[in-house]
Each structure stands twice: as structure tokens, then as C-alpha cells.
Amino acid sequence: MAADPAFDEVASILADRGIDAIDCAIVLGTGLGAVAEDVQDAIRIPYAELPGFPRGEVSGHARQLCYGTLHGRKVLIYQGRAHYYEGGDSTVMRVPLGVLTAFGSPPLVLTNAAGSLSAEMRPGSLALITDHINLNGPNPLIGDRGDGRFVPMVDAYDPHLRGRFKRAAEKAALSLGEGVYMWFTGPSFETPAEIRMAKVLGADLVGMSTVPEVILARRCGLRVAGLSIVTNMGAGLHGGTPHHTETRDVASLAAGALRRLLRAFLSEL
Ligand code: HPA
Q1: How far is residue 260's CA from residue 106's CA, in Å, rounded to a whole number?
Q2: Domain residue ranges of the chain, discontinuous segments joined by +
Q3: Has this prediction a pTM greater than 0.90?
Q4: Does residue 207's CB lie within 6 angstroms of at least one atom of ligand 1?
Q5: Which of these, 12, 229, 263, 267, is most buried using a 10 Å CB contact count?
Q6: Are 9 and 229 in contact (CB under 8 A)?
Q7: What is the sign of the dihedral through the CA atoms of 254, 88, 58 and 223?
Q8: Which pathway is this protein engaged in (predicted)?
Q9: Do 42 and 65 meet the contact criterion of CB atoms below 8 Å apart?
Q10: Which of these, 132, 135, 139, lies nearest to 94 by C-alpha position?
């Protein structure tokens, strides 16, 4: 998968549309699309125009890429991802992520909306993902070939990028929690019993995305950072009864904090 002709095909389309250097790639999760409004001299391309990119939509996701300058850096922003729960395909983000290798493998920042299992990470706050738990079964590298599929996952969430985000949070005077993210396929939310299980297993955050993307990105040799926007407490905790409207609305409100964090991160990159 490391050198896939599909990546070159998309890379040449992007190059024809004026995309050359990329300093940082960012995937925006549910309700976070507004972050891309800050991009200057933006080139926007709907995923529908790019082979191998996901089709369809989820409310809260625009499904286009946006390239341009953000706080002095060239960024490629994916406004909206596709999730495993849409069609049962854990490789659905393979081409959008893999194409980054044709642009010098810039750091990849994956954002998501997540439920919190920790009283210290309240709805509306931001958290850095330190590690993940995947007990769902699907792994996007199933069916991949060669020894490269045995991807080491120690430090999958790059310690150097994590350090940069911590410094950026200090600079922006933002509190930034951190913890282990556990992937549930969704699209139903977890039961209170599942949330209790996740806590016992060592999770601090739960969500329906990101984990397959991190595995795919590591397979391609990309350095990854993961940021969660805490939109709710996990089901059953402190009366947590998560639903999608809340996820979308709280994430939109917290997008301002994410913008400030990214500003501080990018300006030091
Ligand atoms: N569970 C799963 N995914 C989520 C949640 C949650 O509580 N909140 C936002 N995305």
C-alpha cells in the first residue's frame, strides 16, 4: 500500500489544481468544518471530484478538501471524513491519507468529536490522544500484503507532535486534556455498560472514527497527532445521554478553541 498508483493519480490531479507544498494536513471531524474558514487563498475541491475519495455525507460534514495558507503554513484540510459505520469499510480514508506521501509526508492532525470518561475532561474542552484501543475487530490493513502490514503502534500518536501541541496550548492559554481513545464502530452510541467496560480497560475518550485512519497513516509512514473535542460525557456518566445533535452543536461551539490551538501550533511548525 505504501506506493499505490491511486495516490499518484490523485496527487497529479491536486497538482494540476495548484496544490504543491503541504506543511501540514488536517482532518476535521463532526461540527468542526468552520476551522477551514480561516484558510487564505483557498482552493476547494469536493471529494466527488477525486478518485478513491469517500462519497456520501453525514450531517455536520461538508466533504471537500480545502488547501491554502493558514497562519503562514500551507495546509491541506479535509473537511469531513468517512466513517467505518457508513459502509463497513475501514479503508475508506486510504486514498485521502495515502496521497500525502506524494507531498513529502507532512504531519497529519486528525480531529474528532468524542465522549469523555474522565471528570477532568468536560464537554467543550479539547484533549490530545495519547494512544488508542481497537477492540472492534476491523483493521484497515486486513488483506494488505507484505511485511509492511505489521505496523508497529508504539508511539503511533507522535510524541514530538504531542509536545508541540502541549506547548501550543500553553501559548494559547487553553487547557488541553489527554488520554486514551477507544474506537467503537457506531453508529449507535455506547450503552452505559460499554462505557463502564471502556473505563475498566483504560480508555478516557470514546468515539467512532480516527483509529482506522491512524493505522492507515502509520502504514504510510505519516506522523500523526490526534485531537478530540469533548462533546459529551460517555453514556450513563453524570447523566450522559449522547446524541448526534449535541455532538454537532458542542463541537461547533468548541471549534473556536480548536482554531486558537491550531493557530499556535502552525505558527511554530
Ligand atoms: N460516543 C461515541 N462517539 C462520540 C461520542 C460518544 O459519546 N461523542 C461524540 N462522538
Answers
A1: 21
A2: 5-144+152-268
A3: yes
A4: yes
A5: 229
A6: no
A7: positive
A8: Purine metabolism; purine nucleoside salvage
A9: no
A10: 139
